[in-house]
Write a structure and sequence with these properties.
The chain folds into five domains: 125 residues, no CATH class; 114 residues, no CATH class; 266 residues, no CATH class; 68 residues, no CATH class; 44 residues. The chain has 734 residues and is α+β, with helices and mostly antiparallel strands.
Length: 734
């Protein structure tokens, strides 16, 4: 990824668009909340003569009262304080027991009085904070409702108030400037690296009424009007939006959308608004430009899809009943993946993710021309519009699949797309290229917590590599360099990493020693949280492309391919006959234990398959339900593949009786694109996309002692709860 080139843009929030009366209400609300915190936590006051006085907060008062023998909770202390302060009958009311604790201690009496005074003021501040916030919300709602009801000439468009962005020296505050990686969009608008670009900006959402006003009507800044642009999936999770200058959008709209417009999309039936936003956001994701790319040497064809037989637990999305079934499941094996020749466009390629207007996913290296020649089959294949192509005669270098071409139905043909791609000067980008060296990674607590059938000795063995790293972190120069990340796997070394490689004596410096101590402390925290070192690597997941070519070029409906049910191929683990294939998020027992055909002990098959699968990806079988176990598609998803024999043995034992989960995922319906549908879609995503509650609930169940001391019925009930929560989690994500 182009991590060395960044563009600076503005980052603001909805508070930067207030009118004066809204600002006054917001400021008063902020002040009373600040005063409330001071009364709770305590604060210092400096008198005119320079004397400093500390005012105890309620937390400090409670602490001091408890030190003097109080054993009551905060609610009871509040009651004591109120009774005493109101009528001076505190000790009489609570009898000899309280009198024995407090006695006639005037300091305690004063603490109680101070506590009650603080609480009384706190309650007043809470009431005022609620009142000012309600006033602000009503004011915001009335203004957005007014704007929506008016025609364009009578609307009052909000302005990004520049004064709210400036510091005392008249410069834009550092907190209002962020850096974004170079993308197709930044290259398109000719944004200058490391310079502030005001063509687009990020707006953080705190008040929905303000963002509604901005999405419906835009805003002005420095005399330019800005309109809503997009929000990526990550930005939606953090309630962020991207706005762009209207003049910039009009200039580059056809380039960004490869000749389409919102009106054209609406004329052809519309589209789900959030999917549209995510596709538009592709142009704003970090990519390198693919200079050698030639759109004329590409086609797009139907996906490789078959029915796969297997046993699974079906979770009903209506009543959440769970039924174990053995049946055929439709699986799109190439969901998000396409193929490119090993030397596509004259450059040696590795698996990588690509971005074109409305085209995204993973390109896996596979020599489909060699397949055609070896199997003596026809090079003719139909694209998704029914047009036949001779991939050899037309020198096709890349075969995209229908699942990668997100807006295929809004174009008349692939030729139509290609013509518009060239006409409007569109470009292709790539990112996340498969590394030349893939280093070992770590597991996480989710992958560990599902291993409930495990002994203390086995836990210690799993943690062995992490313990060894801590014990040997200073045992040699190389170990210290590794701790600093100065390894052969790191292709983007920092100045410090380069320095300690060039001049190892630098490791004796006091600063380096202190940094090393911090690194060790950090490792201890990571290991305690479950991020343990394992013999495992993250790598792309790819389908059996040989089977896909049998499906496309030989027209075999259920091709044999190179991998059978229960088999995978991963060249990274040539010494491991079995692999545990994992993927995050790991919620249920998603340990896919598979036979690795790349194992050197399977010499004949190893070499036969390696002839075709020449990258370091994890290749999966078209007869396997592994995609339902790990809930992946192949548009760039990665699996943590573990080859450690002991870990695989433990995981395999825990997977006894476990089958994949399967449920009906409803598809989002298309709608007309306009300000209203876009705003409603965003709000639904902002408020309904919280998956943390489900994964946290699952963790609580896994860490319940029911899996240790519970009956078989109790364990099964807990597992069923996890299955339902896992299904609900995926419903929310989708």
């Amino acid at each position: 990824m182009p991590l060395n080139t960044q563009i600076q843009i503005l980052s603001v929030d909805t508070g930067n668009f207030y009118y004066d009366d809204e600002t006054a209400l917001h400021e008063r609300n902020r002040i009373v909340r600040t005063e409330r915190r001071k009364l709770i936590n305590g604060y210092n006051e400096e008198l005119d003569d320079g004397t400093k006085i500390h005012h105890l907060g309620t937390k400090e008062i409670i602490s001091q009262l408890k030190e003097r023998g109080f054993v009551y909770n905060e609610k009871e202390i509040n009651s004591f304080c109120k009774q005493y302060y109101d009528n001076d009958l505190f000790f009489n009311k609570y009898g000899e027991e309280i009198h024995a604790i407090v006695g006639n201690d005037e300091d305690v009496r004063q603490l109680i009085v101070n506590y009650y005074n603080n609480m009384k003021q706190i309650h007043e501040y809470v009431a005022e904070a609620k009142d000012t916030k309600n006033q602000l919300l009503k004011l915001l709602q009335s203004r957005v409702d007014f704007n929506i009801s008016q025609d364009e000439g009578h609307r009052k468009i909000r302005e990004l108030r520049k004064s709210t962005l400036l510091d005392s020296n008249g410069n834009i505050k550092d907190k209002n400037i962020i850096s974004v990686f170079e993308s197709a969009f930044t290259r398109m608008i000719k944004a200058v690296p490391d310079k502030l670009c005001e063509d687009f900006m990020v707006v953080q959402v705190y008040y929905f009424d303000i963002i509604k006003d901005l999405i419906y009507h835009g805003f002005t800044y420095n005399g330019e009007k800005y309109i809503y642009f997009t929000s990526s999936a990550g930005q939606i999770r953090t309630k962020k939006t991207v706005f762009v200058k209207e003049s910039v959008w009009k200039k580059y709209e056809k380039t960004l959308m490869c000749g389409l417009t919102v009106d054209i999309i609406n004329e052809k039936g519309g589209i789900n608004q959030n999917k549209y936003l995510s596709y538009i956001a592709l142009s704003n994701s970090a990519t390198d430009v693919w200079e050698e790319f030639d759109i004329d040497k590409t086609i797009v064809i139907d996906d490789f899809e078959t029915l796969v037989f297997g046993t699974y637990d079906f979770v009903d999305d209506k009543d959440y009943s769970i039924t174990r079934m053995s049946d055929f499941v439709p699986i799109t094996h190439t969901d998000g993946a396409g193929m490119m020749l090993p030397n596509a466009f004259g450059v040696t390629q590795k698996n990588m993710m690509i971005r074109l207007p409305f085209v995204k996913g993973l390109l896996g290296v596979f020599d489909f021309v060699k397949f055609i020649q070896v199997n003596n089959c026809s090079p003719i294949v139909k694209d998704i519009y029914g047009v036949e192509h001779d991939v050899i005669e037309e020198d096709i270098q890349i075969i995209f699949t229908k699942s990668q071409f997100k807006l295929w139905k809004y174009f008349d043909s692939w030729s139509d797309y290609k013509e518009k791609f060239k006409k409007y000067d569109c470009s292709a980008g790539f990112t996340n290229v498969e590394e030349n060296r893939i280093e070992n990674s770590t597991i996480n607590y989710q992958m560990l917590q599902s291993l409930t059938n495990i002994t203390d000795e086995e836990i210690l063995e799993i943690a062995g590599a992490s313990i060894d790293k801590l014990n040997n972190i200073c045992s040699s120069v190389k170990d210290i360099q590794n701790a600093f990340g100065a390894t052969i796997y790191n292709t983007n070394k920092t100045a410090l990493q380069k320095a300690i490689l060039l001049y190892p004596e630098l490791l004796n410096d006091v600063y380096i020693r202190n940094r090393l101590k911090d690194i060790k402390d950090s490792l201890i925290k990571r290991y305690k949280s479950g991020k343990l070192q394992v013999f495992g690597k993250y790598t792309f997941i790819l389908p059996d492309f040989y089977a896909a070519c049998q499906y496309w070029f030989q027209h075999i409906e259920r091709p044999d391919g190179l991998l059978a049910d229960g088999e995978v191929f991963c060249w990274l683990f040539r010494k491991s006959d079995k692999l545990d294939c994992l993927r995050s998020p790991h919620l249920y027992r998603e340990h896919a234990i598979k036979k690795n055909i790349a194992y050197s002990g399977y010499c004949d098959r190893q070499l036969q398959v390696r002839e075709w699968f020449q990258t370091d990806a994890l290749y999966t079988s078209s007869f396997d339900l592994i995609s339902k176990v790990l809930q992946f598609d192949v548009d760039g998803d990665k699996s943590l593949v573990i080859g450690d024999k002991k870990f695989v043995e433990i995981a395999e034992r825990n997977m006894n009786g476990i089958v994949p989960l399967y449920y009906n995922m409803k598809k989002a319906l298309p709608s007309v694109l306009n300000s209203e549908t876009i705003y409603n879609g965003l709000v639904a995503a902002f408020t309904g996309g919280n998956i943390g509650m489900y994964s946290n609930s699952i963790s609580k169940i896994w860490n319940n002692d029911v899996f240790v001391v519970g009956t078989d019925e109790e364990k099964q009930e807990a597992l069923n709860c996890i299955k339902c929560l896992c299904a609900q989690n995926n419903f929310v994500i989708d």
